[in-house]
Amino acid sequence: MPDFLLDPDVIFLNHGSFGACPRAVFDEYVRWQRELERQPVRFLQRELPPLLADARQLVGEYLGARSHEIVFVPNPTFAANTIARSLALGPGDEVLLTDHEYGACQFAFDFAAKQKGFRVVQQPITLPVESNEAIVEQFWQGVTPNTKLIFISQITSPTALTLPVAQICQRARDAGILTMVDGAHAPGQIDVNLTEIGADFYTATCHKWMCAPKGSGIFYVREDRQAMIDPLIVGWGWGPNKTFHRENEFIEHHEWLGTYDPAAYLAVPAAIAWQREQVTPEVRQRSQDLVRQAVELASQIEGIERVHPDEFFRQMGLIDVTARCTDTDALKSRLHDEFRIEIPVIRWQDRVFIRVSAHAYTKRKDIEALVQAIQVI
């Protein structure tokens, strides 16, 4: 089994929240921190720009994009704020989301809407879903002549649902609507090709399923859309006398946020190398099978139900405990305190889900322990 730094006394079935970093990748992260501290001025002013360029090149190859269309950001929430505050949206305009989106990213648009006067519209996607075509058609019912931006997850956080983002982006392009895809849960869990997805904007974490250090994410802006996006943080990279020489103005404006620790970004290539070596298709399939087993076994308990057909989830799955749970905090606490299981309990709409995640370190006995704990509770 790959060497992770996880507490062996805890059954960790919550990779989807913050990920987990393998020892080899974490060691690379610490190595870059030490390099920074050896000679901070030399490292930050002279060595860092080409190092970031090399890292972006590898990320672009991994995600099917050109490196000059990608900048590193701390997380997708940062990117969502950048988009929400940059786009020329105003009264009468609408931003369309599903009702499955990650709360922090939706809040970024809610906040900007109060300032600019546009509307944030949530289009329901009912569960269980039947087909990709049905998802697209139901989502498209929310589109109006006022829709200027579609913001949608590739794999949803609260409901672990894989959405047909390429089909939605294509239909939006045909209609002249901008698209932003939240891919926080996608890279590392499924193969991602940004060129094929066709979104105008895409953001993802590297610290979740790619298993890079915390605080590493990417923000992709298609080249012909880059002039639309202002930097969220204005610093030296924006001014007339730029300190660093980069490939283009987009990177210059967005990647230099003042003094910061770039070690998490520079360790992303090590995470990609680790993924390619350790997370083979067989490992992904095994993790997916473990999640399916958890869902199937739990659904045999009276009052517990499954949510999605198997083809709509990957290494995260949902166990519907709505009929048996009235207090989500109490359930999560019991699972952790009594059974040493770290797993989220999520309230979505009027339903309660246990979201189970599996990765290379997950064992069959971990799944059995979860099901037994649910049975007891």
Automatic annotation (TrEMBL):
Residue ranges crossing the lipid bilayer per the database entry: none
Keywords, comma-separated and alphabetical: Isomerase, Pyridoxal phosphate
Aminotransferase class V domain: residues covered: 45-370
Organism: Blastopirellula retiformator
Coiled-coil residues: none
Enzyme class: isomerase
One of the record's GO molecular function terms: isopenicillin-N epimerase activity
Designated name of the protein: Isopenicillin N epimerase
Gene3D superfamilies: Aspartate Aminotransferase, domain 1, Type I PLP-dependent aspartate aminotransferase-like (Major domain)
InterPro entries: Aminotrans_V_dom, PyrdxlP-dep_Trfase, PyrdxlP-dep_Trfase_major, PyrdxlP-dep_Trfase_small
